[in-house]
Amino acid sequence: xxxxxxxSVESKRPDxxxxxxxxxxxVIASGMSPDGDLRLPNVTETRLYRTxxxxxxxxxxxxxxxxxxxxxxxxILGAGLDSRAFxxxxxxxxxxxxxxxxxxxxxxxxxxxxxxxxxxxxxITVAGDVxxxxxxxxxxxxxxxxAEPTVWIVESLFFYLGDEQNERLLSTLSELSASGTVLCGSxxxxxxxxxxxxxxxxxxxxxxxxxxxxYVDDPAAWLRPHGWEGEGVSIADYAATIDRHVPYTExxxxxxxxxxxxxxx
Length: 265
Description:
Elements: H1 2-11, H2 21-29, H3 47-68, E1 73-77, H4 84-87, E2 95-100, H5 102-115, E3 122-127, H6 135-141, E4 151-154, H7 163-175, E5 182-188, H8 196-207, H9 219-223, E6 228-234, H10 235-241, E7 257-264
Parallel strand pairs: 1-2, 1-4, 2-3, 4-5
Antiparallel strand pairs: 5-7, 6-7
């Protein structure tokens, strides 16, 4: 719910990077105060908030660019409370597939129905656990066409998986991706092993049963063996290009967190 809360806060800023009207609806439906129950004073100054805003903006732009180039399928893995099917203005020719747990969609769809909002594109939910289930078969059964280009969004998922799981995931994505497909997402870099705030986040995640399990040194080199021409930019560097500052120290060559994208060859 923290991600929805951060997006709700960002949406209310006069200099917002995006507007996510559904985010506050999700927060309220969860029982949280719309002003937040996260015990984070000065929330807009926190690393979590600022990286969330920059990451969301980056991935929004990746989707917009791919759709403008003619891609008509978007797949969001571990979709959570993502509302891109509602807020990016995607046309009816575009299909957004959201993959996540059935229990998540029960909550999400109830909140969406109560809001009266409708997606601007075709939205299909696919129940499945990206970590354990055969979600790819369910995705195909739901109508995804591997012969046509896709935009894959893998946001805040890779680092919860171990290296072997990520290799299997990338192999699956490659098998389901036609030439011209775009993969975009986020991952930790080597600096995450030492950066204090990241370790504090990992301690809290570990207590909740979801420890951070992996990072990559170089996104382009990581994606290349799977047939992707990729690139990575640190979240801190990307934030600076959109007039935002991420409050942590990042040494050259020791990136804390990556935003990454790749195109299927």
